[in-house]
Amino acid sequence: MTPPPLPPTPPAEPHDLVGIGIGPFNLSLAALAHPLGLATAFYDQKPAFHWHPGLLIEGTTLQVPYLADLVTLADPTNPWSFLNYQRHTDRLYPFYFAERLHIQRTEYDAYCRWVSDHLPGLHFGHRVDAVRHDPHDNLFHIDVTRTGTDGGATAPGRATARNIVLGTGTVPHIPDPLKPLADAPAVPVIHSSDYLRHRELLLGAGHITVVGSGQSGAEIFLDLLRHRPHGRERLHWLTRTEAFAPMEYSKLGLEHFTPDYTRYFHHLPEATRDQLLPRQWQLHKAVDHTTLAAIHDELYHHTLHGGWPDATLTPGVDVRTAGRAAVHRIELHLEHTQQGTRSRHTTDAVVLATGYREKPVEQLLGDLAPHIGRDTAGRPLVDAHHRLALDPHTVPPGRHIYVQNAERHTHGVGTPDLGLGAWRSATILNDLTGTTPYPQPTRTAFTTFGLPMTTHSPPTTHERPKNPPPVPRTTPRLPMKN
After folding, report:
1. What's the pLDDT at 151?
2. Contact 78/31 with Cβ under 8 angstroms?
3. Pairing assessment for the beta strands 208-211 and 349-352 based on DSSP bridges
4. What is the tens place of the pLDDT at every residue in 384-440?
């Protein structure tokens, strides 16, 4: 049955905000916008919400506490919280007795799907084709196509909005030497994002190589290790990093994922930010220490009946080139970055745990793209309110394009972190409404990042910061900024 056409929004009733993409971050924004009375609509091409389905490996957990849900760190009383989800699914007491601070990924996915199934204003199965700004009505016009179950276009439509937020997420990164093989059907070269769909094929391969030492690579290597025969594991784990290093989880180290650090990073010079980000890889690209411990325990378990497991773990290795060694085999040309030595490595399957890259915001913006402010590297400028810097002669003040998870170069390592999602959504909504429906804390870290511009005496121990008044739960519709 063909779905009815998407009715266009009447020009007299534009949306206050249209979101493009419905991942956790735009879902957070929609959930926090819901009680404010704003006219919003969010679109996503996928038929339903799914959060990294290829990596929902049994037993894997979030790397952030459950309080980093869609809304709690901005508004603990919001009805779309994880605890309210537990109450509505009659699991609150079992969760209480489970005493889990870090929930399983499958549970987080189920929570987000519960929100997406019940929160109004979300439109799955709708592809956004283009975004334009009309100078006559000073509105954004969004061309939307409803898609069928097979992904084909079925009905065009259009929405209008005063403001837009881009939450189109990231795409799997495949290193250049392996791109030809990843596109070839005869050999299994699979990105980690698609791991579960190919898991049985991989387990049946003679020899498997995992490339990449982040959390995904570690979890996949552990899963394969647990399900390969003892003594005949035939696994190889390669990474460019100098070690299979643990993630920085010290409590003061985690303060790099606070609004305080984000604001500090945003005010640094561009060249300083670019130098700093690669040095912070252990804050977000390393491996949870419990996963590393589980890998070591599993390797040790495989030695109980004598001999070492047939599993090789080699850090400091770069894949220079790759090709077919036979019809169904893969040859990787490797270089050790410290030794300077080179070798060839033959395997039957490769899993690329090589991370993700941000989608260029220009892909959707069309004619607006030339009017976005750029830094010296050609990247979009994003201000402290997560707005793209737009030419005011093209898009007058009061109309904004916000971005989610596309500003790591301006806002730092916390950009893709779930723990800052609710804070960023609250920041966007405070700016969009020109009021403060979600008061922001004045301080979020014990660490003082940077030196103060002026010298002053610290407050006495008896002085306490004044807390802002609580936000009423029945928040009226808020006036929009002009």
Report:
1. 62
2. yes
3. parallel
4. 999 999 999 999 999 999 999 999 999 999 999 999 999 999 999 999 999 999 999
Determine whether 259 is exposed, middle or buried from the number of CB atoms within 10 Å of its CB (0-12, 13-18, 19+).
Answer: buried
Length of the chain: 482
Asked if 191 and 172 touch (Cβ cutoff 8 Å), the reply is yes
Quick one: three-class SS letters along the chain?
CCCCCCCCCCCCCCECEEEECCCHHHHHHHHHHHHHCCCEEEEECCCCCCCCHHHCCCCCECCCCCCCCCCCCCCCCCCCCHHHHHHHCCCHHHHHHHCCCCCEHHHHHHHHHHHHHHCCCEEECEEEEEEEEECCCCEEEEEEEEECCCCCEEEEEEEEECCEEECCCEEECCCHHHHHHHCCCCCCEEEHHHCHHHHHHHHCCCCEEEECCCHHHHHHHHHHHHCCCCCCCCEEEECCCCCCCECCCCCCHHHHHCHHHHHHHHCCCHHHHHHHHHHCHHHHCCECHHHHHHHHHHHHHCCCCCCCCCEEEECCEEEEEEEECCCCCEEEEEEECCCCCEEEEEECEEEECCCEEECCCHHHHHHHHHHECECCCCCECECCCCEECECCCCCCCCCCEEECCCCHHHHCCCCCCHHHHHHHHHHHHHHHHCCCCCCCCCCCCCCCCCCCCCCCCCCCCCCCCCCCCCCCCCCCCCCCCC
Residue 288's beta-bridge partner residues?
A: none
pTM for the whole structure: 0.90
Q: Which residues contact 97 (CB under 8 A, 6 or more apart)?
A: none
363: which residues sit within 8 A by CB, 6+ positions away?
A: none
In contact, 135 and 369? CB cutoff 8 Å: no
Give me the amino acid identity at 126.
Answer: H
Q: What is the pLDDT of residues 88-136, one digit of tens each?
A: 999 999 999 999 999 999 999 999 999 999 999 999 999 999 999 999 9
30, exposed or middle or buried, with CB in 10 Å at 0-12, 13-18, 19+? buried
Tell me how far apart the alpha carbons of residues 467 and 355 are, in angstroms, rounded to a whole number.
40
C-alpha–C-alpha distance, residues 44 and 19, integer Å? 9
Residue in 97, 333, 345 with CA at minimum distance from that of residue 207: 345
Average per-residue pLDDT in the chain?
Answer: 90
Residue 69: both structure tokens together: 């849900």
